[in-house]
Amino acid sequence: MALLTFQRATTGVRQAIFRESGNNTRFLAARLSTNPPAVTLEETNNGMFANVTLSRPEKHNCLSPDVMDGLVSTLTELSARNKKLRGVFLKADGKSFCSGGDLKHMRATADFTHAENEADAMRLSGVFDALYTFPAPVIAMVAGNTFGGGLGLISACDMAFATQACKFAFTEVKLGVIPATICPYVLAKVGAPILRRYFLTAEIFDTAAAVSMGLVNEAVADADALADTEERLKAQLMNNSPSAMRDSKDLIFNVASYGTVNSTVREWSATRLAEVRDSKDGREGMSAFIEKRKPQWQEIDWKTS
Question: What global pTM score does this model have?
Answer without folding.
Answer: 0.86
